[in-house]
Design goal:
Length: about 450
């Protein structure tokens, strides 16, 4: 939730429940627009336009409307819009540009909750004498996002703390958005016909429900803190100090935001931060049984002692050991095996659904550059490589093999972390031993000797 942005005085937070009718109407417009475009497409084919050209036009217009509506809304629709933004690279500039601008504006300029409303939430959660728990409390939020905001304060024992306060009504708005979006499976199917959209949306909804529950977040952060204790040489996870209702109080940590390292850091600093960032995302499942589900640069701080401070454990995916091993085996097969074995492994994990035919040559061409970081001793992540990957993933042409792939529900958050984390590494323009880190932290990828892929000693 630590999204850095300017705070404007006297702004008022959007009243999400009060705007439910407007939100519902906007979401309801999506399938109606799709039906109209489909009917128009039938007419164009009747008058001789090539079927592929008509299909492409329908896909682009559907994506245009989808991004426009989701980009105008907060809550669940905005969150889903962020996840679907991987499609934007495949769209014409006149479509992708305005969508990207709208989403950026929403992310960076969400109006904060008024102090009086913050005090009401604190009183409800901590009791009418909530001020006695603090030596001081700054009414001006230090950070804000789609469902809540963070205030800096000093706890009763003198420790600086971060006080996370959830917007009243945010939970109902999020769930309402997801309930409506779940009815739009056919619309998303136009963009990715191989995708089991219904299952994916159900998984996203479950994760968002957890993110709204600060009791779960406090438990997750406490578990992570135990796995990465205060004397860990690489990472610092703030201690949970108090939690009640829609309020979570944790240690405050200082440091250079990862976003600032991206924009201003020298090469040594970027490589150091990138290695720790990669190590944390990969090691969480093995050390804590959890995957940090929101690898946004605003959630990480490069501390003065060289360690990486980690914030915001609202979005966490629990990874059982057997699933972690399956992921490792899939990665291993993807980097070493013949393409037929790769296809079999992808079908076993439901990345290719039983009724979907796949072009194995196209699949091999698609996977080859994606596996690069895991087969070389070091890999240089940069924006050029990322643009090439994005173009491959977001190509909406019917011949693109990616459109035939599915995203199994249990891999939704894993995919989100892998995609977003890779994006951050490319922003850092770093060179790191990603293969060695994968071998070290992902069982199944390194538990058998095969050629050069052998787990490092120690």
């Amino acid at each position: 939730m630590a999204v850095e942005r300017p705070i404007i005085e006297n702004e008022r937070v959007s009243d999400l429940p009060r705007r439910a009718v407007t939100r519902s109407a906007k979401l309801a417009s999506l399938p109606l627009g799709f039906a109209g475009r489909t009917a128009l497409g039938v007419g164009k084919r009747t008058f001789g336009r090539p079927a592929e050209a008509v299909a492409m036009e329908i896909q682009q217009r559907t994506a245009e409307q989808l991004f426009k509506v989701l980009g105008e809304l907060k809550g669940g629709a905005m969150k889903l819009g962020q996840m679907l933004s991987i499609f934007e690279a495949a769209l014409p500039p006149e479509i992708a540009g305005p969508y990207r601008a709208t989403l950026t504006k929403l992310q960076e300029a969400a109006p904060p909750l008024p102090a009086s409303s913050v005090h009401q939430v604190l009183a409800k959660a901590l009791g009418p004498g909530w001020r006695d728990r603090f030596v001081s409390f700054d009414d001006r939020p230090a950070a804000a996002a789609s469902i809540g905001q963070v205030h800096k304060a000093v706890w009763e024992d003198g420790r600086p703390v971060a006080v996370k306060v959830q917007y009243p009504g945010a939970g109902k708005a999020l769930i309402s958005d997801f309930n409506q979006l779940a009815r739009l499976g056919r619309l998303f199917g136009v963009l990715m016909p191989g995708l089991d959209v219904k299952s994916m949306l159900a998984e996203l909804k479950e994760r968002v429900v957890e993110e709204l529950d600060y009791t779960i977040e406090a438990e997750s952060q406490t578990t992570m803190r135990a796995a990465y204790p205060a004397d860990d040489p690489d990472f610092y996870v703030p201690e949970v100090i108090a939690q009640a209702g829609d309020v979570l109080v944790t240690e405050w940590i200082d440091g250079i935001p990862l976003s600032k390292v991206i924009s201003e850091g020298d090469q040594e600093q970027r490589d150091h931060a990138a290695l720790l960032y990669c190590r944390f995302l990969l090691s969480g499942a093995k050390r804590a049984g959890m995957l940090h589900g929101d690898p946004h640069p605003g959630n990480f701080r490069l501390m003065e002692d060289g360690r990486l401070g980690v914030l915001d454990f609202g979005a966490v995916d629990r990874i059982p050991p057997e699933f972690l091993y399956r992921m490792g085996r899939l990665l291993r097969i993807g980097t070493l095996a013949e393409i037929d074995a790769v296809e079999d492994a992808l079908r076993d994990e439901d990345f290719i659904r039983a009724d979907v035919a796949i072009d194995t040559e196209a699949l091999q061409a698609f996977l080859a550059p994606i596996t690069e970081p895991f087969v070389t001793e070091t890999f240089r992540f940069n924006r050029e490589w990322l643009r090439d990957m994005a173009a491959r993933v977001t190509d909406l042409r019917p011949t693109n093999v990616v459109r035939q792939l599915n995203l199994p529900p249990e891999y939704v958050i894993v995919h989100r972390v892998l995609s977003a984390g890779t994006g951050v590494l490319c922003q850092l323009e770093c060179e790191i031993p990603a293969r060695a880190e994968s071998l070290r932290w992902i069982p199944g990828f390194a538990d058998e000797e095969d050629g050069e892929l052998v787990a490092p000693s120690g």
